[in-house]
Amino acid sequence: MRHKLTAIKNFYGAAPLHLLALAACFALAGYAAVQTLSAPHWPWILIWFAGAVLGHDLAVFPLYALADRSLARALRALRPSRAATPPLVSAVNHIRLPALGAGLLLLLFFPMIIQQGRQTYLAASGRTQHDYLGHWLLVTAAMFALSAIIYALRLGHAQHRRHAPRK
After folding, report:
1. pLDDT tens, 15-41?
2. Which parts of the chain span the membrane according to its record (predicted)?
3. Residue 5 contacts by C-beta under 8 Å, 6 or more apart in sequence?
4. pLDDT single digits (tens) 63-115
5. CB–CB of 109/136 below 8 Å?
6. CA angle, 137 then 79 then 88, to 5°
7. What is the DSSP string of the chain?
8. Which of 41, 62, 88, 102 has its CB 3.0 to 4.6 Å from that of 158, i.e. a possible disulfide?
9. pTM of the prediction?
10. CA distance 25 to 31
11. Cα dist from 88 to 31, 53, 84, 130, whole Å
């Protein structure tokens, strides 16, 4: 059995589980394509998708790539000296992840946060949109706080390991 798995890995270039996951992803994508193309308004779906891809690649990606490079450069500039050892734990991902979560939540709930369609929402749900901005800010603060706690724990663990006696 091990010989067969090794043969598959040598032929395919990755583990058999990767091949299985890739096949499942293609099956799901094929199902989604069939469902989309069977809808009567499928050309509009394809136009919207193409617009989303172009909008992301031409507008949004350069913006968040610039923000990411600026973050990395600012964190490097905060280090006391270039000759100093690199930080024990990089802070970049502890800022990236909650920022990404906050950005995705803002994108998802932006119409509610700016209270667009106030009357329609009130008529449909019987609720107002006043809480969305506050809730988004609280969730964003919680994500950054959790990330800061995890960063502090990782930094403490790395310092402890660095100063622990070697066996």
Report:
1. 888 889 999 999 999 999 999 889 999
2. 42-67, 88-113, 133-153
3. 16
4. 989 999 999 889 888 877 665 677 788 888 999 999 999 999 998 999 999 98
5. yes
6. 80
7. -HHHHHHHHHHHSS-HHHHHHHHHHHHHHHHHHHHHHTSTTHHHHHHHHHHHHHHIIIIIHHHHHHHHHHHHHHHHHHSS-TTSPPPSS-SHHHHHHHHHHHHHHHHHHHHHHTTTTHHHHHHHHS--STHHHHHHHHHHHHHHHHHHHHHHHHHHHHHHHHHSPP-
8. 88
9. 0.66
10. 10
11. 46, 38, 11, 43
Is 70:141 a contact under the CB 8 Å cutoff?
no
Interatomic CA distance for residues 136 and 104, integer angstroms: 11
Token pair in block for residue 127: 């609720």
Convert the pLDDT of each residue in 114-135 to its tens digit: 988 889 888 888 888 889 999 9
Q: How many other CB atoms are found less than 10 A from the CB of residue 94?
A: 20
Type of residue at 62: P
In one-letter notation, the amino acid at residue 98 is P
Per the listing, tokens 């749900």 go with 125
